[in-house]
Amino acid sequence: MTEPATQPAASPPSTRPADEPPPWLEELPPKQIVAELDRYIVGQDPAKRAVAIAIRNRWRRAQAPEEIRDEILPNNIIMIGPTGVGKTEIARRLARLAGAPFIKVEASKFTEVGYVGRDVESMIRDLVDAAINMVRGEREDDLYPQAEQRAEERLLDLLLPAPTAETADPAGVAGTPPPGAAEPPPGGFVVSTKGEAQPVKPEEERRRRTRDKLRQLLRDGKLEERQVEVEVSQQGFPLLDMMPPPQGMEGPDVNWSEMLQDLLPKRKKRRTVQLGEARRILVDEELRKLVDMDDVVNEALDRVENHGVVFVDELDKIAGERGGVGPDVSREGVQRDLLPIVEGSTVQTRHGYVRTDHVLFIAAGAFHVAKPSDLIPELQGRFPIRVELASLTEGDFVRIMTEPENALTKQYQALCATEGVTLEFTDDGIHEVARIATVLNDRIENIGARRLHTVMSTLLEDLLFDLPEVTEKRVVFDADRVRARLMHIVDDEDLRKYIL
């Protein structure tokens, strides 16, 4: 992927290689954001453009004058389209590329207040937790060399313990010569195997040289099998998680078990582990000491409020005829609970209060049974950008199997290569797989690109089963071979319902 010739003047220059994901998707112009999504998702250009504009607007808002910055609200998006056309895949790729707090939730998991289940405010708490993990990971990456250096010094202390008073001076204080006595030669002499007399180095010098030799062996990986004894803190008290909080201390902002663990004394125990495991334990301890969690939480809360993205999938599952009764009575209640979160409110979390005014919400749903107009009008108004995703055609299936970096054909080729078998697909073979997938979607149920997974797994089932003993080291699937393997299943009306 090549960088465009011109970029907005305010955009920071990109110095990353073309084949690496950007650290912050917001910093890229919309065309480059679409190009990043094109690496994994075929077609659906209107949805990609809408998402790219919404993501880039987060960065634009941060550059706007302060007096109007708070007035610029995000344009939430609702993506409408049948299953298997790329709605969820867009969310997955945004989560990996965004560089900002991002979570994906399913609307069907939430219930109205008063019912058993998750309340809608938990999505913001999950977003805060994701942001804290992200910021802490960034800080740990920056401090890792320093933590590694500290852990190395602690490992050397374990391999070469500091001398005690007795070993450093066996004679003790009484061994010092009286005033006026002749001073002995420093360190005395030793005779080598060749009969040469050499002065003995002072204890500190010998210890320093031994430590340097151990350090070099440690860095060369020659001591990984050595056993050392380290002191570790025991993690958690399982019984505390089952204890109910006292009356009046319930709520999302109070973590009862965590509060009790902070009050109880930290229990430590000694473990004998190999040096490689000891290094990992010590590096983790040093990172916990170096990372300022108060600063991490403050940074995470700021990112959530100004850069957070929530992807609400299966929105159509909470839509229905308004005013209905029965087991689905809470659907409209979930919409009412979701409305203030999307509109902008203050959510209480155990790390502090979070305002959702500038959190970007991207919703998606197939809307096979319900329609977007079945949502309550207030909620419809909070998703002003609507994008309809088109059903996938046979040509799209061909592109899905060849163009993306994670194409199914490339995945199966990598799997077969681990067994020493080269797997190849001819152009007509790929077109035949796409044709069969399209026919099955038309005859049975249109599940979009997911049909390719069922077709490919059935096509390669025998090969993958026989791989360890297969004699043919180069397997080529052309149109005839694909047709011979799949047509008897496609033509069998009863069998294809269960297999494909």
Report on this structure.
- This protein is of the alpha/beta class.
- Among the domains are: 25-128 and 304-388, Rossmann fold, CATH 3.40.50.300; 394-495, Orthogonal Bundle (Helicase, Ruva Protein, domain 3).
- Helices cover 47% and strands 12% of the residues.
- The strands form five sheets. Strands 2-7-10-1-11 form a five-stranded parallel β-sheet, sandwiched between helices.
- A hairpin with a 2-residue loop joins strand 8 and strand 9.
- The longest helix is centred in the first third of the chain and has 38 residues, at 122-159.
- The chain is globular.
- 26% of the residues are buried.
Topology, element by element:
Elements: H1 30-38, H2 45-63, H3 66-69, E1 77-80, H4 87-97, E2 102-106, H5 122-159, H6 165-168, E3 189-191, E4 197-199, H7 203-219, E5 227-233, H8 238-241, H9 256-263, E6 268-274, H10 275-290, H11 293-307, E7 309-313, H12 330-343, E8 346-349, E9 352-355, E10 360-365, H13 377-381, E11 385-388, H14 394-402, H15 408-417, E12 422-425, H16 427-443, H17 450-459, H18 461-466, E13 474-477, H19 479-491, H20 493-499
Parallel strand pairs: 1-10, 1-11, 2-7, 7-10, 12-13
Antiparallel strand pairs: 3-4, 5-6, 8-9
Helix pairs in contact: 1-2, 5-10, 5-11, 14-16, 16-17, 16-19
Quickly list its features.
Rossmann fold; 20 helices; 500 residues; alpha/beta; two-stranded antiparallel sheet; Helicase, Ruva Protein, domain 3; 5-stranded parallel β-sheet
